[in-house]
Amino acid sequence: MDYRSRWQQKRRERATRVRLIVIVALLIGATASMLFVRGVSRPAPSGYELPGSGISWVTASDDGVLITTRSGELVKLTPTLQPVQEGWAGPFTHPAGFRGRCVIAGPCVLVPCEDVRVRAVDLKFGIESWELEVGAAVPAITAYGERAYFTTAEPALYAATADGTELWRTELEAEAPAQPLVTNESVVVGTLAGSVCAYERATGKLLWRVLPEDPAPVQASPIMGPSSILVGDDGARLHSITREGELLASMQFEGLVRHAPAVNDALVIAGDSAGIIVRVNPVDMSEIWRVRLHGPLAASPVIEGGSIWCAGGRELVELSTDGEILTRRVADADTCDLTAAHRRIYWATTDGCVGAVRTEEQSR
Q1: Closest Cα to residue 184, out of 221, 220, 233, 149?
Q2: CATH 2.40.128.630 is held by the domain 190-292
Q3: CB-based burial, 56-95: b 16+ in 10 Å, e otherwise
Q4: What does the pLDDT average to over 154-174?
Q5: Which CA distances in Å does 304 have to 33, 87, 357?
Q6: Across residues 92-100, what is the average pLDDT?
């Protein structure tokens, strides 16, 4: 091969390398553009920063949101996560700490506390209205009409009026750490013994008890599905139970099912500690589709604005009803709660931040 031939060969090789580099650059640019346009990866929204880090819970009110923290702060904010200008001079605090999500009952906010009390805080002015002393710490409260229903670590189930008068108390076989499900007729709780029990709402009398095979602790709130009660357990199962107390079917997951599913008509979305999100067919408890998050499910999914919103690990993920990932938003710390109100998704993280995402920002 003469000199000219070698030179031509090297020239062709160099041209080939240049073309490959250009093709790879174009592919990378096209992929980045597609991700940007579709919104698959977006930064975490700005919002409100709590006084300290730790677990917090968000509750929607008619005129804003309420945030309770494990360390004992109750904060009222506007829908845009600004401190309210009237009524509340500052957060309501108590050194004993709060155990879970607050609930609104009439003119008051009921707060579950670590120091064997339920406290009621005036919703308008942020001052304590009354307190009800019970036998142990209160993990969660459900408000229903003019009454409140809650469990304690004694273990026991209580009913009280909205002004703090105890109506009845029923002993439980084991602690029920999640919010009770309250219907017109009954109060349904899941226990750490693995049972799901229903009590008469008016009297606290036991109506029925379900104990699945190989019972596992129930740490998820029961929720009413399209035609049955749905409740998860630490045996990685989601159970379907009739209103009369018959176990219909169970669905197996990979991880612990510690959060209630999201239900909207026949749309049922459940998740687990392995980060698996499943659309469940509530008729036979079969799987329609599944998606894996980048971390364990941190709160019950939310169905809002035509989308499914899930908090897992450090991410807030928006899904279509077909299971397509629409957006991902990443925070600096793990998520700990999620709720929807005021055409926004409110998202709390363990570093003390609360963000808001407008549902109109969805990317299609």
Answers
A1: 149
A2: yes
A3: bbbbbbeebbbbbbbbbbbbbbebebeeeeeebeebbebe
A4: 96
A5: 27, 30, 11
A6: 90
Q: Helix, strand or coil for residue 93?
A: strand
- Residue 240 is inside which H or E element, if any? strand 237-241
- Cα–Cα distance measured from residue 84 to residue 52, given in angstroms and rounded to the nearest whole number: 19
DSSP bridge partners of 119: 111, 131
- What region, left, alpha or beta, does residue 162 occupy, with left being phi > 0 and alpha being psi -120 to 50 degrees? alpha
Exposure string for 263-293, b = 16+ CB within 10 A, e = fewer: beeebbbbbbbbbbbbbbebeebeeeeebeb
User: For the stretch 125-155, what's the b/e string if a residue is b when 16 or more beta carbons lie within 10 angstroms of its beta carbon?
Assistant: ebeebbebebeebbbbbbbbeebbbbbbbbb
**Separation between Cα atoms, residue 320 and residue 7, nearest integer Å:** 57
> What is 32-53 written as a DSSP string?
HHHHHHHTSSEEPPPEEE-SS-
Domains 55-171 and 190-292 alike in fold? yes
Query: If you search the block for the tokens 């029990």, which residue do you land on?
Result: 197
What's the rounded Cα separation, in Å, for the pair 112 and 137?
A: 8
Report the pLDDT value the prediction gives residue 52, as an integer from 0 to 100.
87
Q: For the chain, what are the domain ranges? A: 55-171, 190-292, 297-354
Using an 8 Å Cβ cutoff, are 208 and 186 in contact?
no
**Rounded distance between C-alpha atoms, residue 22 and residue 14, angstroms:** 12
State how far the alpha carbon of 20 is from the alpha carbons of 14, 33, 67, in Å. 10, 20, 54
State how far the Cα of 329 lies from the Cα of 294, in Å rounded to an integer. Answer: 11
For 199-246, write each residue's pLDDT tens digit: 999 999 999 999 999 999 999 999 999 999 999 999 999 999 999 999
Under 8 Å between Cβ of 226 and 207: no
User: Distances from the Cα of 83 to the Cαs of 63, 270, 352, in angstroms?
Assistant: 12, 33, 15
Q: Does domain 55-171 have CATH number 2.40.128.630?
A: yes
